[in-house]
């Protein structure tokens, strides 16, 4: 080995340079540019090996609004994944195997190289961060990110339960009981949903095209999947609201074919509902 090569490798020749104490050598390794570069290469190689390994697994039921939001995000952003269907109506979520994965027995769930995560809000934000998707999905800027967090915090006590209640009263309960929806309960549920829709228009869409700014975010994705759910009973809760209809069109345009592809199961329910009229 030439003297030049030993210098380039950062290795001292004993006949030229006195040996350094071990502690000093450790300091050199931690600050040597070549050492730092090698460590970066090794770290990148580890990430590549991991990415080339087992694809992210997503456990879902497409009749679930949050599941559709997660799947749309994965597909639209070309994140490699394997779908594991959990049919809630068949009790798949209560099996010992799935309960071990998620003791709450709910979907969606993701498993990303051994990392298990539940709750759609957390999953979407994790995916946006871990897979470095376009910044508009979950912005790095503190104020813009806070706006997304603001909506998603409000979403879970407003948009989600109120739209889901209409679907439950018009679709799920009649199928379970064989009885028609209770008119008074349905009217009350629709009134509560109207209050939420008013807030979406007056607060979140007051001066901007999407819920949290000028581009689509995970907030829009969570919201639109909930507001699509009543279509399963043939009810379009946005039909008399031009501002929300325009917003929905913008969301659909941003998501392209993925939106309709993932909502196909809901469109089939809508068709069945119309055929019964």
TrEMBL record:
This entry's Enzyme Commission designation comes to 2.5.1.18
The protein's location, in the record's own words, is: Cytoplasm
Instruction: Establish whether keyword Transferase is in the entry.
Output: yes
Q: Where is the GST C-terminal domain?
A: 141-275
Q: What broad class of enzyme is this? A: transferase
Q: Which Pfam families match?
A: GST_C (PF00043), GST_N_2 (PF13409)
Which is an annotated GO molecular function term of this record? glutathione transferase activity
- List, alphabetically, the PROSITE patterns matched: GST_CTER, GST_NTER
> What does UniProt give as GO cellular component?
cytoplasm
Q: Domain GST N-terminal: where? A: 54-135
Q: Which UniProt keywords apply?
A: Cytoplasm, Transferase
Does the keyword Cytoplasm feature in the UniProt annotation? yes
- Family, per the entry? Belongs to the GST superfamily. Theta family.
Cited PANTHER family: GLUTATHIONE TRANSFERASE, PTHR43917
Task: Describe, as the record does, how this protein assembles with itself and its partners.
Answer: Homodimer.
Q: What protein name is recorded for this chain? A: glutathione transferase
